[in-house]
Specification:
The chain is an alpha/beta fold and 386 residues long. It has 2 domains: 188 residues, Rossmann fold (3-Layer(aba) Sandwich); 169 residues, Glycogen Phosphorylase B (Rossmann fold, 3-Layer(aba) Sandwich). The protein is 42% helix and 16% strand. The protein has 15 helices and 13 strands. The strands form 2 sheets. The protein has a 7-stranded parallel β-sheet with strand order 3-2-1-4-5-6-7, with helices on both faces. Strands 10-9-8-11-12-13 form a 6-stranded parallel β-sheet, sandwiched between helices. The radius of gyration is 22 Å and the shape is globular. It starts with 5 loop residues before the first strand and ends in a 12-residue tail after the last helix.
Length: 386
């Protein structure tokens, strides 16, 4: 009996941790011989060029005059059902409860119970949307009607259970990095474009939303550069960009800060840095910290959400209370001025990222969940991590 699966994956195709993880997972599954069908309104940005066993199905929204707003959710549910029938999918793996798990629930009603639904919670659907009383019942329905539910951190599981009074089990499946892509790169030439040989580089990568506390990054840097020659690199775009630029100008730091905009080759960019700054007030996992860790870069961050499950305080980075910029600056200076300590952190980062969060192990965990909900025997293939 062929044990390879036919899997439909739906995620937000634009920039964002959930889309990155969903797309990379799909690619890994395809490498194992599973047939993977992405169902979304545009091609996921990390999907790249043609790859065997991967297919893309575009969701087209009909702008009927009777609707004030185009009914994307209904179009997505219909497309899920169509693809499930025509391709004889075994299951749908959807990322985010709203709207994707709700749409999968509708698709399953159209197709029948033979189609299974696995939902992965990434954070925003719980930490933001579930705070809205008008959406709680819908999110609870999506979670309870899924055949399996996973979450990217223990903290997110705790918050989901407490906020929505969820009684069903939720599997912990951490985010991961592909060790073939995320490893220390030779960034010496690129680094020279931004910093002098005696200068250190601090880096922050995000979508610059208020929850990322980008102004804390600037404040930490202000304190650090008073004692250590340094430059600050921002990667990304977002609504807080004007506030950051105003503060940087007000502090007279314009010549020490560079904005790189959105970047695709994150491993190459991160490899320039000496530390990654992640002072978020909410972070369900902190994928960028894992990407940095895999490139040998420690994180200076906050004790928020799932970050403490990823960053080991005093080993792969330092964590402080949310908003405690003085502590963050002191920890940053400690790392930047002690070469032996920095080397120890670098090695600990590489070991933890490539062993505890490697692509083979997490992909295997998802496969086990798939076979479990389908009631099939799991192939005896042990992941190789190192």
């Amino acid at each position: 009996m062929d044990k390879k699966l036919k899997i439909g994956i739906t995620c937000y195709p634009s920039l964002g941790g959930s889309g990155v993880v969903a797309t990379e997972l799909g690619k890994l599954l395809a490498e194992q011989g599973h047939q993977v069908h992405f169902i979304a309104n545009s091609i996921p940005f990390r999907l790249g060029t043609f790859q065997k066993n991967i297919f893309y199905h575009e969701v087209e929204v009909n702008d009927y005059y009777v609707f004030r707003y185009p009914p994307y959710d209904l179009s997505l549910a219909t497309k899920m059902a169509q693809v499930a029938k025509s391709q004889q999918l075994d299951l749908l793996h959807v990322h985010y409860a709203v709207p994707h798990a709700v749409c999968a629930f509708l698709a399953k009603q159209m197709v029948g119970d033979g189609l299974k639904v696995v939902t992965t919670l990434h954070g925003t659907d719980i930490t933001v949307l579930a705070q809205d009383e008008s959406l709680k019942d819908l999110i609870r329905l999506a979670i309870n009607e899924s055949d399996a539910v996973t979450a990217v951190s223990q903290d997110l599981i705790r918050e989901t259970v407490e906020l929505l009074d969820i009684q069903r089990p939720i599997d912990l499946t951490y985010n991961f990095i592909d060790k073939r892509i995320y490893y220390p790169r030779d960034a010496a030439s690129l680094r020279r474009d931004f910093a002098a040989p005696d200068e250190k580089i601090l880096m922050h990568i995000s979508n610059f939303r208020p929850v990322k506390r980008t102004q804390d990054v600037v404040e930490v840097f202000r304190q650090v550069q008073e004692q250590v020659p340094a430059k600050l690199l921002f990667v990304g775009e977002g609504p807080d960009l004007p506030k950051m630029q105003w503060k940087i100008n007000d502090l007279g730091l314009n010549d020490k800060v560079h904005f790189l905009g959105k970047q695709d080759d994150i491993a190459q960019v991160i490899s320039m840095a000496d530390v990654l700054m992640l002072p978020s007030e909410k972070e369900s996992f902190g994928l960028v910290a894992l990407e940095a860790m895999a490139c040998g870069v420690p994180t200076i961050g906050s004790r928020a959400g799932g970050i403490p499950e990823l960053v080991l305080h005093g080993k792969t980075g330092y964590l402080s209370a949310i908003g405690d910029t003085q502590s963050m600056a002191e920890n940053t200076i400690r790392l930047l001025t002690d070469d032996r300590l920095a080397a120890e952190f670098r090695e600990a980062c590489l070991q933890r990222a490539h062993h505890d969060f490697c692509n083979d192990a997490i992909r295997h965990e998802y496969e086990q969940i798939y076979y479990r909900v389908l009631g099939r025997e799991v192939p005896n293939l042990k992941p190789v991590c190192g």
